[in-house]
Design a protein that fits this description.
Elements (H helix, E strand, L loop, with lengths): L18 H14 L3 H16 L5 H13 L2 E2 H44 L3 H29 L4 H17 L4 H15 L3 H12 L10 H13 L3 E2 L4 H12 L5 H13 L7 H33 L3 H4 L3 H29 L3 H16 L4 H17 L1
Parallel strand pairs: 1-2
């Protein structure tokens, strides 16, 4: 994934600002920030580095690189890192909460409305249109992510293809293949092999030591594990959630899962906030809270653990090769998830038309995704009522 910093930007110093104002910015961005991780990261660069000078250019670049290399949704990880730069652990904690809280509260409201009115015709029509539009949006996002991360590297394209086909075929997350993508890239691009194993163990060892007891604890641990397999785009979590949420745990039906992804598209902030909707349907407000904690706690801990020594390991060729392979695998899984979700949300001519129109519009023009979703929802209500 390429840097978002404009070549002409030359901000080597930062302006002093109170922690309250700094955190307030992320509360605002979490409330109005749409467009996915790349757009959110771009806002942080433009606002904090170029215009206000609250963050030095080199700090932003380092934070962006950390967010690209380490597991976790990119925008949330970058925000937490910048908070750490400004005020240590207190800054990282306050910024993380401020950035996630607005979208979390919005998802709670949408979840409550979904549970209460989900059986009504207008709500069904709303998600009838939105669910189809989401397929077009994810398709365009997957295309952008693919061109951004794979380039012309044949090995990465091969990893992408394997994960894309396996995800579309099985409708499940295949964690061993996901990890294998990183290991294959490491073996092919960088040595010694001994370091590859240590890197994989550092990033993913916690997955093997998760106990299971109680519904809330099970929700928390499941989403914490899922959070370890999100690289770059929050959409990477979708294929990993689908199999576990729908087939293994049977927490949601297939259509409910598509609606959960749609809710994430409706709300600003990190895309992975969709887990709060899932948690709410399983166990109410408590379920939503522990699901959100599960997906973001690994992000928070990764920043606090790695940030102090970031400069020492950031240029490690073994780590970079492993992460490039994992990112290619995650991108392939997203592409496969588009097919999986499309089979559930496109089942007649109107939904096919909405999905194709949404994708075509986004490929051709810069239309805000919330506006597109709102129009699709209104069309869905109109079609559903006829």
């Amino acid at each position: 994934m390429s840097s978002l910093v404009h070549p002409s930007a030359d901000v080597s110093t930062s302006t002093e600002v109170s922690l309250i104002r700094f955190v307030g910015y992320f509360l605002w961005l979490g409330t109005v920030g749409f467009g996915g991780p790349i757009a959110l990261a771009g806002h942080m660069q433009q606002d904090l580095v170029n215009e206000r000078g609250w963050i030095k250019k080199e700090d932003y670049v380092e934070g962006l690189a950390l967010a690209q290399l380490a597991p976790g949704p990119l925008a949330a990880q970058l925000a937490i890192y910048l908070g750490y730069v400004r005020a240590g652990i207190l800054g990282a904690t306050a910024v993380g909460v401020a950035f996630v809280l607005p979208s979390f509260l919005m998802v709670l409201c949408l979840s409550a409305a979904y549970v209460r009115f989900g059986g009504l015709a207008w709500m069904q029509g709303l998600f009838y249109g939105i669910g189809a539009a989401v397929i077009g949006i994810i398709t365009r996002s997957a295309f952008k992510l693919t061109t951004l991360t794979l380039g012309s590297d044949k090995l990465l394209w091969g990893i992408f293809a394997v994960l894309g086909i396996s995800t579309a075929w099985t409708s499940r997350e295949i964690v061993p293949l996901f990890l294998m993508g990183g290991i294959v890239a490491l073996f092919a691009k960088s040595f010694p092999m001994r370091k590859s194993k240590s890197i994989a163990m550092v990033l993913f060892a916690p997955v093997g030591f998760l106990p299971h007891s109680g519904v809330l604890w099970e929700i928390f641990l499941y989403f914490a594990k899922a959070g370890l397999f999100v690289f770059g785009s929050g959409l990477a979590v979708v294929p990993f959630l689908y199999g576990g949420v729908v087939h293994d745990h049977r927490w949601l039906t297939e259509l409910q899962f598509v609606d959960a992804v749609a809710v994430a598209m409706i709300t600003p902030g990190p895309v992975v906030i969709t887990v709060a909707f899932i948690g709410y349907l399983v166990a109410g407000i408590k379920g939503a809270s522990v699901a959100a904690l599960g997906i973001f706690v690994p992000v928070y801990l990764v920043v606090l653990i790695l940030a102090p020594s970031y400069k020492r390991w950031a240029r490690n060729p073994q780590l970079n090769a492993f992460v490039r392979g994992v990112t290619a695998a995650a991108t392939g899984a997203i592409a496969g998830a588009v097919i999986v979700l499309a089979r559930r949300s496109i089942y007649d001519w109107p939904t096919l038309g909405i999905a194709l129109a949404s994708g075509a519009i986004l490929f051709r023009w810069k239309v805000p995704e919330p506006l597109l979703i709102a129009c699709a929802g209104l069309i869905g209500i109109a079609l559903h009522s006829t």
